[in-house]
């Protein structure tokens, strides 16, 4: 079973880890939830939360019999025992077999999406239920085959209970800097250091030989050694191609991989087991002993294993037979050299390709494979050797082959890790706590580092499988990861990094976040890298990344709005329609050519979508999100920041993606915008969102205004005087502008003014409206009388009447 999770982090690789497989290398602590917590705190993010509210009708069943459907080649006729009865079920999954425990939806069950299971006839045979896939259960997007459960699952019991008790597979988000964790062995290594349990090494045996007979079969050449620092090749004869043994099929199927044949399965298994991709060629199809590794040539073509013809360019690195391509290095093999049921002799490739070459090639061809994901993030040159020998062992064990003694492995440009000095002073400064020397040395040694030196200064050499360890802070991060971020003591006092005579913007930013959170907004953090299609939504010149990980991360963001909309859309598709979100961060634009022409801006953006609150026992109606609701929230936000004289001035549309928008001004300074979010975002990004509303602040401007020192203002003891004025004016005149005019002409005694209501009726005239304003007067030095207030009111009436052609009603 696969525990599904949210959408992966940009640039991260989703890696499926079978817990039973993990036990081959390390003792797994606790249950699945505890394991997920440990891995998440190690930076290997796992999400084990499932919404099981729609799975109450699903039970555990067992397939007692599975035969071919008499009237359909691709269907099976199964006998399913549900704990009480044996029922006939028609199933179209390729992987259904007798003896399996399965998730069974009987007649009458309701699946996610309100799909009700009914009694049906399929090609003349009665079907009394459904054997479910993960997608049908809403657990993941996996639909290529039914969900096969653990053998310990009890037939006839609730499937929900099974999910909570017998989860077997986790999906992890492995970030681009951790290619060492793209396998079960890599995850086990981190887990071993964290828990202190003993680590078992992979089962592979490096072999010795007296005469290198492989050199009689293979002549290896490099066009450029920098493109491929290491290429290991060997020969296995007389293999028998056929189905994989049950244990190997089970291993691959447990992580969602389909079994092909024993040779292909061995290569895939080794990659998922110890993390290094390999490839197996049909040696007799190569047409030459020569293996030349070179760049592609313009006009070259190759038919790849997915039966697609690929046009090659110099961006791609090729494996050739000296004349024509037989594989795209690090990405996919060629169809012409692929193994099949007639294969007898094979060439095993295990290489280390330069990461940027594979990345450029995969991007240029629009291909992303399990192999390319690993190579383009940094493979292990020593791991290539371990993977090679593991494949040799399995080919002899499973496929009955015979290894030709010898290996071709020139390794012309050896890759050595650089030395890094770690100091106690820097460790204490960054961690903020006391981590003893023994723990530091034990942790780094356990992670594969070679350490010399005593306390206070250590010289470390990272292992070959950790290309991300380059600086002292990288080693400190590893120590803190294993120490536990949750074990770092909390500091209850705030230490600013600003000079004491200067205001600290970080403190004000914390206040801003607290206010928005208090208003019901949720803070989110989105990737600052976006696709060209997304950044092109706005007519703002975007900054292009020189060597992007993928097309979806090719440009720096020009606005925070797209990321917020994607988050809202993801929530919408998962059942949460009502959201209030905000994010602060940097945006970028290319105002002039070159690096010096890149401008970085600090912004705060928020959106609302759906309803502000749900209909319930205490609320008769829902409150749909609207511009006025958002304006009220923004008004409250600014008031709590102690801003006065806030004005909203209307615009039809601005270049920032708002329609029917308004500028937000404080004391005459434009600090942001508010309005309807343009529908071109949803259409360009293929989102399901309907109308959304948003605001955007220039954070530098906002923080600058907050630098003003607050001064105490004594409470005025003199009474207030209130007056109402009602003006008839043109419909197109903005009430906010009129209110600003009233405030600007209130002398020193107008405390505040605000519109009360807007009235429209034909008797007022065509395209006319009546607006009532409430004016509050107060003096700090005396009790006001009519003779003090009336002249001010007369002046206000005169100015408003003249400026807006308004009439006092």
Q: Please give the domain count.
A: 6
| Helix content bin | 25-40%
The CATH architecture of the largest domain is: 2-Layer Sandwich
Number of strands: 41
Order of strands across the biggest sheet? 29-32-33-37-36-35-34
Low-pLDDT parts are 1-8, 496-502
Work out the radius of gyration.
34 Å
CATH level-1 class of the largest domain: Alpha Beta
Please name the fourth-level CATH homologous superfamily of the largest domain.
Bira Bifunctional Protein, Domain 2
Report mean pLDDT, rounded to a whole number: 88
Q: What is the 3D shape?
A: elongated
- What count of helical segments does DSSP give? 20
Major sheet details: 7 strands, mixed
CATH fold category name of the largest domain: BirA Bifunctional Protein, domain 2
- Helices and strands: which structural class? alpha+beta
Termini separation: 73 Å
Proportion of strand residues? 25-35%
Please give a handful of descriptors for the protein shown:
Phenylalanyl-tRNA Synthetase, Chain B, domain 3; 20 helices; Phenylalanyl-tRNA Synthetase, Chain B, domain 1; 809 residues; OB fold (Dihydrolipoamide Acetyltransferase, E2P); alpha+beta; elongated; 6 domains; single chain
